[in-house]
Specification:
CATH topology of one domain: Rossmann fold
Shape: globular
Order of helices and strands: EHEHEHEHEHEHEHEHHHEEEHHHHH
CATH superfamily of one domain: NAD(P)-binding Rossmann-like Domain
Strand order of the largest sheet: 4-3-2-1-5-6-7
Number of strands: 11
Helix content: 40-55%
Distance between the termini: 54 Å
Strand content: 5-15%
Number of helices: 15
């Protein structure tokens, strides 16, 4: 029995994690769950899984949740940063699933590593903004960071049994989102509704827009650099519309090893939960005789400038990845609210990056300071549109 804490339990990754756990009740137990403000969904999860602790963002939400739950002595309702910290650091927790969207997931994930807990990482922003800090912390606290993103899970699986020194290149695959075949000029007229219609995956709003701009893949490039210790010059991105090959590793002898499967997030989630074992499959098997042809394309840097900005931020390092991430979050929020155009997103990010004076990210304080600075700058630029 593995005891699991879930950060971001009401999001798509959190919900899929709970579905996996529900399918294997003898293997996993939910001891704590944490969300933001989705009180109704959290109440249903408390009823179904009866965790010891449930955490929400603030005192008001906690009060509402207590009213909804009523007399449930088996679950303690907490809120805020102290609640998140307690949820991941409980002595009985074996694994923390980090699935809070955006930079908000950084501090709770750091707290989990400091407590010596293995982390199943779905919150890529934590690794992007504080990659060297997290890698060093995991090493010092003797805990593992197991990737949940389908692409990084694929690489993680492809590398098993191989020396990192034998790796020549990592190839991250991208669905391309809904617009990879569009003409560049047509992207100026993209609406939020169109950007949220992903052809392959059902995800949260922010990550779906990131997939449409290819910022999601750019963030994954930075994440892969830190998780796998591979230079940026040896990380490629290929658009693979079928989303069957989840990523590949090229070794120094020219051999390519890929991980294939149907596009279903329950697969990589189950692998992260059960690692180093494998569980009985939940998703349907991939029938290669019925699969579509497998196509791979190089992304157009002029059409998807967010990808190039990510490589630039990653190579600069220090506080620049935190600035990239924060500016993107603010720009995506503004786009979804109808405040800017789709094509304004990379322009805002680039403008903020150009204004930033990069510093070393020695501590989490440095990262948070850069994050707050970038958000102020991005909002100021957005207000002029």
């Amino acid at each position: 029995m593995k005891n699991v804490a879930i950060l971001g339990s009401t999001g798509s990754i959190g919900e899929n994690t709970l579905e996996v756990i529900r399918s294997f009740p003898a293997r996993f137990r939910v001891v704590s769950i944490a969300a933001g403000h989705n009180i109704e969904r959290l109440k249903m999860q408390i009823s179904a899984f009866k965790p010891k602790i449930a955490v929400v963002a603030d005192k008001v939400s906690a009060k509402r949740l207590k009213e909804l739950v009523g007399c449930a002595p088996e679950t303690e309702i907490l809120f805020g940063s102290e609640g998140y910290h307690h949820a991941v650091s409980m002595p009985e927790v074996d694994l923390v699933v980090s699935a809070i969207v955006g930079a908000a997931g950084l501090i709770p994930t750091i707290a989990a590593l400091e407590a010596g807990k293995d982390v199943a990482l779905a919150n890529k922003e934590a690794m992007i903004t504080a990659g060297p800090i997290m890698v060093d912390l995991a090493r010092r606290c003797r805990c593992r960071i197991i990737p949940v993103d389908s692409e990084h899970s694929a690489i993680f699986q492809c590398l098993k049994g191989h020396r990192r020194s034998e790796v020549n290149k990592i190839i991250l695959t991208a669905s391309g989102g809904p617009f990879w075949m569009w003409d560049r000029k047509d992207l100026e007229n993209v609406t939020p509704e169109a950007a949220l219609r992903h052809p392959r995956w059902k995800m949260g709003r922010k990550i779906t827009v990131d997939s449409a701009t290819l910022m999601n893949k750019g963030l994954e490039v930075i994440e892969a650099h830190w998780i796998f210790g591979v230079d940026f010059d040896r990380i490629d991105v290929h658009i693979h519309p079928q989303s069957i090959v989840h990523s590949l590793v090229e070794f120094r002898d020219g051999a390519l090893i890929a991980q294939l499967g149907v596009p279903d997030m329950r697969g990589p989630i189950a692998y992260a939960l059960s690692y180093p074992e494998r569980m009985t499959r939940l998703a349907e098997s991939l029938d290669l005789t019925k699969a579509e042809s497998l196509q791979f394309h190089r992304p157009d840097p002029a059409k998807f400038p967010c990808l190039g900005l990510s490589y630039e931020a990653g190579r600069q390092g220090g506080t620049m990845p935190a600035v990239l991430n924060a500016a993107n979050e603010e720009a995506v929020t503004a786009f979804l609210a109808g405040g800017i155009r789709f094509t304004d997103i990379p322009l805002i990010i680039e403008a903020v990056m150009k204004k930033h004076k990069r510093k070393k990210a020695v501590s989490i304080t440095d990262v948070l300071h850069a994050d707050r600075w970038a958000r102020r700058e991005a909002k100021q630029i957005i207000s002029l549109h």
